[in-house]
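Team,

Forwarding the record for the chain on the shared tracking sheet. I've put the sequence and predicted structure together so nobody has to dig through attachments.
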Amino acid sequence: MKGKKFLWSFLTVIMLLSMTVGAALAEDGALFRRDISKTPDNETEKAAIYMMDFYVPAQASTGLVGPVDNYLLADGETAGYVARDYAKPLITVWIDDLHPVEETKGGVTFGNFDAFVGVSLDDGTSWKTTNLSRSSDLSSFTLKNGYAYPGDVHNVVHQVAGDNIFVAWVSKYCDGGTPLYKLDPSLDATYLGDLESTYGKDAVYLYDLFGVNGTQRSVDYALQGFPDVGEVPYSCVWTARGKLLAGDDPKTEDKTEATYVMWTKPERLTSGSRDANLPAVDCAAGAGCVLTWQEDPEGLRPGQGLGPGEGWSGAVANQKTDIWYSYINFNDFDLVFDSALTVAAPLTMAEYALSTDTTLPKPYVPMAIPTRLTDNNMCKATNSDPYCYIDFDDIDAIDPLALPTAPTADSDFCATQISWLNPGGTSLKLCVTEDNRLLNGRVASTRVRLNLKPYTKTDGTGSAWVIMGTEENKAMGEILVNEEPIDIGKDMWYYSFDMFDHPLVDQGGFANQPAQCKFDASVDDPLCTGINEGEFYPVQTDARGFEYYLTEISRRFALTTNSVSAAAGSESGLAAMMIYKQGIINQGGPADIMLRRVVIPEDFDPAVDNPYAFENMACDEWLYTDGSNPNYLKGLCLSPAINISGTTIVECTSGTGNDACADTFPVNNDGSNTSGGDFPKVFEWRNCDGSSIDGCEDDNDLDDQTWENPFDVAKGHRGFLDGDFVMMMYAWSPNWNSNAVGNDHYNLYARRSFDGGLTWTTTPADLGGVGTTWTENYYGATIGEFVPYEWTFAAGEFEQARNVSQLNGNKITILDPRYSPTGGLKLYPTIRTDWLTANGFSFEGLPYDDDLERDRSKFFMVYETGDNTTVRDGEAVPLNLYYSRATVFGDVWEVMDYMTDKDDLVLDRWPWLENKDEILSGEAGMLANPGGTFMYAVWNQWEEEITHYVDDYGIEYEEELVFNSDIIFRRLIYLPDDTTVEVNLPPVASILATSQEVYGVTEDQIISLLATARDLDKMGDETLDPIQEYVWTINGVAIPEEYQDAFKEMGFDCFKDKQCNAPARVVSGHWDGYQFQQPGWSGQNNYNLGWYEFALQVKDNDDPAKWSKIVKVKKYIANNATDLPGFRIFLPLTSK
């Protein structure tokens, strides 16, 4: 559901309205933007983008082959790069509502969405779009009321590897798609036999051992307290494969293409007997693609969590919700049936293209039939799915025509059986696995994060390691839906395995540390009575006598990984970093960002050993490593994780010092508030490593427990690894309680490590670091009053978390941040030319210089701002997008000037990606080329109107109209660091102004403007200021020199300096002297009140010097500032 950007958002600070010259003070290029979907009347969501790592001949979406020649610099005229005959393919996906009669009920978006893909072969200049799902006008389920529910797609994801594109989506349409589970082992024996004998597919790959088959079901939310939502059918998982082929597209007649993408028919994987949600995919070159998703047997839960994304998102789930797994080998990826569907005679897609058939081909080798990856389902001694009773140690012995219906001594997941009394009082005979796990179906796994890293086996074949994390509601606790508040506490589980040798019904590895008793914990937690601060809670015993530990609330797994070669070649041996959010309060509340390092052992063999294995997690103190405790089969780490967001409080409402402030935290572990008055506030803080930073009290926050500073909250945790280099980012606020109701806000913070996460510093000198200086904004007497403090850190010195967003005030907050290293998320080391060679293309001058080699010292970020005034009623409404490029490994961030409304301060902030006041934008995706000179971004943007109405019964409703909704693409270009532009380019000028539009003469208000400018070349004298002259005019008139002294005496100073200060009384002629007003400008002849146009032009230091284009801004002068003729509402920071 989308929210409203209210008109009064102009009260916020540090937001940008528009720039006449585009982002002239940010990227080097002119504004380059494209509408990909071009369906403004249809709501568009779920934008994402990936890039292929090779060149193709540049080709427009029309099929016309020809060079890309639109790489213009910020002046809009000069080419920053020469025309390019080759481009890197860009692939986007999104969902689009083709029948925009949408209902929004209870937080869920119902519509008629389809899954779309867009392909650009000319560097984003044009896009060819394809509807992959084509199900929005179909139906596979009729509700009890007789309504044929549309085949709505509600999520889509994709990935690329080589010239292969893999797309997956979840849809309410669960018919067709020839799913593998529907094949009959007898009737389809010839085909299944060929898959087995020719392509090596075994029974686990081919046959339904896990209960995939079934009838599509539904959930009635009226029974859960949401009568306006009603009945909703379950969703199914679909996939499609794309292949970039050389040659003319046989489906087109008027153009001869050089390349095109062929798509297969969509393939359905599931039946809808359980509700599928949140697909995750990844692909690895030389190996294949993997797909995971979660399936809830009782349907998507509405959710009652307080954190973002908890409601209607799949973040919480019913018991028995498992993570499911499927995959495809790239050796089989593009094999398709011929037009006659002949068995044992598949064609490659390239061969199929040579036939006369132009319909979509059907995949010959299907995706692996879905299997349960996690162990959350119940297995009973009778009437369970076959997998509960199968001996998977002998897969060749599995007979699909005679699957077991009862356990045997060899059953992996029902080796023994015990009687179990469920919470309802019924005795069940449940299965116990051969490794002693009780499969009682009392937990749920959700929100997978997935990576896939290729490697080469000793026999030379390609494979890939799956690295996966998921969150699970606490294994020892029942979800009591009738309790308030509902316990939505979760633990983090980690998995890693070969993609072709995947586990079944696996427990995974337990990642988060057991909970420790906090100071004075016995006051609100009787379990800690008599236990010292920092000691673990008493060890518990489950119903079968096995030990388990109590934990805090861990959720929102994120992963970042090195490649196998990067991990093996690094000094630290860092292979992966688990990232998750953890806090002490059950339902929402304060939280920190935790890291777990996975480090390869010294005897690591990259052809055999899994560098990402759970046992490689860095830990000083392990328990249960012998597999004897079924609650922690792979062991339990008692050592603390790295608390990357940990902070020490310097000053708070009650005084100074972290411990003194933490003692005043009035919230118990159960979320109850004991304050009885004003909630304490934090005003100043530090990130400490035990060094001599002022205010750190010799503390080290990197090993903090979350309760050591219980006031703060963090989210949006992401990062990437590049050998020993770690970049981490997260949004953070010092005051959780105030932030939860919009009285404090998030800022975006970045931290870096150059030794695999052991220490967190500035860039070392041997990597070009010279130290860095930046500002943190602490608070004064109130949270809204910011007090800037400048920090300076030497090269390689410990660095506190750096505030890179610099948001002040409480009207705006940070939503979802995104990032891209150079080379994209897969860190492409170069852009390849071998695809061109293999497909018969000749070329010269490739790779382009900026694609030749990765510049590791650069990376990019984007953050989304939100309207913080709406947080009290839910989540912050999305507003705008801002970006920056980091250089010198993050010591330097590229910024531009902004002016504040409140006090006319000029501040350095990130440039805007999208900033129109009437447009809402979010869900950004981004990537960069290897050299860090091109950034590509996509996002969803829309406008909306919200109306309120009262029905005949007096009940008030809110209706949301979404319009002008599309997926937008923007390409940003930067000149290389060593560029020597030989063209004498004109400079680019911009006017910074506050959003105030009407200035009163009576109040003697002053119009304050600031000139900013940039010289686009390096041809001038480097010892001189690049901009040598500024010229201001008002209504086209410059002040003659003979009048300037007189003007200065009246407070007017708008001549040839960067700053223009013009009192309204002087400009409008409320004095005996110069008159600026020109007849007809405001529609009134020689009248001194009205619109005035301020114009700026600058000159650079070149020889010969060049003048910029003239930029202008209009201001209205009235008798009083409250007079509003022609008044328009603006965001407060404008640049013209």
